[in-house]
Amino acid sequence: RVVSFFCLLRSARLNLISLFTTTHTFYSYVVIISNYECEENLLFFTEVCYISCTIEQFMLQYFMIGGKIKMKGVNGKSVLVGAIIGILAVGVSFAAFASTLTINGTAELTGDFDVKFTAASATDTKATTTVPAIAADTGVLSFDVSTKLEEPGSQSVISYTVSNLGSIGATLSTPSITCYSDSGKATEVPCSDADISINAGAVNPTALSSAGTATGTITIKWEATSESIPEKNIRYFTVTINANQAS
Fold this sequence. Notes:
This protein is mainly beta. 4% of the residues lie in helices and 48% in strands. The strands form 5 sheets. It has a 7-stranded antiparallel beta sheet, with helices on one face. Strands 8-11-17-15 form a 4-stranded antiparallel beta sheet, with no helix packed on it. A 3-stranded antiparallel beta sheet has the order 16-12-19, with no helix packed on it.
């Protein structure tokens, strides 16, 4: 295992601090040499001289003569070298500092979408309308009404309230109305003719934030120009309002 150390030339004499590095992976040898006089047999490169030896030979000579190493140059002169050798043992592998950082958590979806009817009432003119009582805090998704018109010109205006009971914003569609001639709602018929008209007005507003409310109306009328009671004097109807998550 060949090692090299470097001598910094200071005039004719050298004060040397040299690092021995071997191909042996287990140890590095630090050698401090002072008062070494470079001889003719050394190679000089811009005030730097290079010396090669085996670390085993150097250590053997050093310890055998009690710290005094005697080396001969090509001219036969002896050079006395005072050396201080420190040996640093280095571990086979280097362990870098490392840490593992961890974040543990949970993700829970707590929002809710809850849009319902929360109130209903009727204003009758020569008519009788039955509407249910609706609990405002819980609401309902649907309710039934029943109106009886007494004569031409009679009408009933049904008012309702839609509330957003959830935490997610909602938008309301324009109410749509479908009329039927039978209670099973198998046959559709017009909602307005010469004798009767059933109309659903728009809801206002159409955008509902959490705890927001909107109102709308349904108007049922026996036309004042009607001159007879139609053969099918009962109309069944359904009003539909779609509530969607606000974008």
